[in-house]
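User: Hi! I'm working on a homework problem where we have to compare a predicted structure to a textbook description. Could you give me the structure for the chain below?
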Amino acid sequence: MKPPKIALLFWTINAALLALAFVLVQASFSSARATRIADTEMQPKPAPRVNWESQAREPGLQIGDAQLSPRARPQPPKQPVVEIPVTKPEPTDAELMAELQASLNKRYRLQRTITWVAGGDKPGAFVECKGLRLFLFEGMNLKDLAGKEAGAASDVEVKAIRVDHVLVNAPSLRDASKRFDVKLTLPTDSGASFKWSQETTGMTIVPVNE
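Assistant: Happy to help. Predicted C-alpha cells:
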C-alpha cells in the first residue's frame, strides 16, 4: 500500500474515534443533567404562606388574642388553706415551779448561809446578783431593796434559811397569780465543794477554796 493511502486511512480512523468520543461525552453530560433535574423535582416544595388573620376559626378571634396563650387559660380555683390551730397543753404546777426555781437560781446565786448567830439574830445568807452582794434574812422581801441594791429587787419573799438552801416564795414567770415556794441552792457549776466550819458567830457553810 502506498504511503498516501496509509496516511489517509490513519486520519480516517482518528476522525472516527474523535466522533465516537464526542458522542460519549455528550451522552454523559445529558445523563448528569437529567439526574440533577430529577433530584430537584423530587425535593418538597415550600408550603405556601398562610394569612392566619384571615384563617381564624372563631369569629372575632384574632392572632395574638390573650385567649390563645396557655398562660392566659383559666386556672382551677385554688382551694383555701385550712390552718389547724395547734394548742399547746397548759404547763402543770410542777413545771411552773421548776421553771421558777431555775430562773431564780440563775439570777440569785447563793454563796453562804448562816443558820445560827450569837445573840439571837435571825439566820442570814449571802447571795450575788448582777455583781451585787446581798445579805438576806428571814422575813424580808427583795422588792424592798433600794439604793445601789435596787437593781436586784423583785417580788421574792425570804421564808426560811437552812444550812444548804434558802426557801423563798415568788410568783410564777408565766402566771403571776400563782406563787410557789422554791429553793435557792448552793451552786455546783463552779466546781467548788463545801465543808462545815465552826465559827464564833455560829455554824456556816464555807467554800473549800476560801
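For your comparison, note the following. The chain has a mean pLDDT of 77. Residues 1-40 form one domain. Good luck with the assignment!
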